[in-house]
Amino acid sequence: MIDVTKVITLRYVIADKTVKCYTEGLRRFGHREIQVWHLDTASAGKLLNFICNKIINDKTHLRVDQTIADFAPVPFQIIDAISPQGKPAFQLTYERKHPAVRRSSVSTPKNIYPHTKNKIICDRIDHTDITELG
User: Fold this and answer.
1) 86 secondary structure, DSSP code
2) Quick check: 8 pLDDT over 50?
3) Angle, alpha carbons 40-68-77 (nearest 5°)
4) 33-37 and 18-24 as β-strands: parallel, antiparallel, unpaired?
5) How confident is the model at residue 33 (pLDDT cuts 50, 70, 90)?
6) Which residues, other chains included, contact 17 with Cβ-Cβ below 8 Å and sequence gap of 6+?
7) How buried is 117 (Cβ within 10 angstroms: 0-12 exposed, 13-18 middle, 19+ buried)?
8) Is the N or the C terminus of the chain less surrounded, counting Cβ atoms within 10 Å?
9) Residue 131 pLDDT > 60, yes or no?
10) Helix (H, G, I), strand (E, B), or coil: what is residue 8?
């Protein structure tokens, strides 16, 4: 079994009151990179590690319009996207008004993004099985 945290890098972009997290390394395994927006860093990291584990270790193939419902009570829909490197990617979207989505904030380093006033409001996902998320 491959430890996805050692072969896939997660990159976080915090700007304009938005948090974006994307993978780097799935292309080495013949898959599109994956990105998700508006989640706090912990939820985004756990979600992407969970999905990368399914792709690499469980040999799951993702497709556009597929729904991922086994991570949390919130279903994630897969749509077409472009990675920051300009390559085809998958983006995970979700209903932000779903009852399992909670509001949270992410602190940012002082003076790096002064227009965010050091807090970014984003979403937190309540997970179903913490032991499975790594």
Assistant:
1) S
2) yes
3) 75
4) antiparallel
5) very high
6) 116, 120, 121
7) exposed
8) N
9) no
10) coil
Determine the Cα–Cα distance for residues 96 and 115; give it in Å rounded to an integer.
24
Which tokens belong to 27? 């292309």
Work out the average pLDDT over 56-73: 94
pLDDT in tens, 76-100: 999 999 998 899 999 999 999 998 8
Residue 67 near residue 94, CB atoms below 8 Å: no
Q: Which amino acid, residue 48?
A: L
| Three-state secondary structure string covering 37-71 | ECECHHHHHHHHHHHHHHHHCCCCCCCCCCEECCC
Closest CA to 16 of 106, 90, 124: 106
Answer whether residue 130 shows pLDDT above 60.
no
Sheet containing strand 88-93, edge to edge, reads: 9-15, 18-24, 33-37, 88-93, 76-82, 67-68
Place of tokens 């756990």: 46
Higher local confidence (pLDDT), 108 or 84: 84
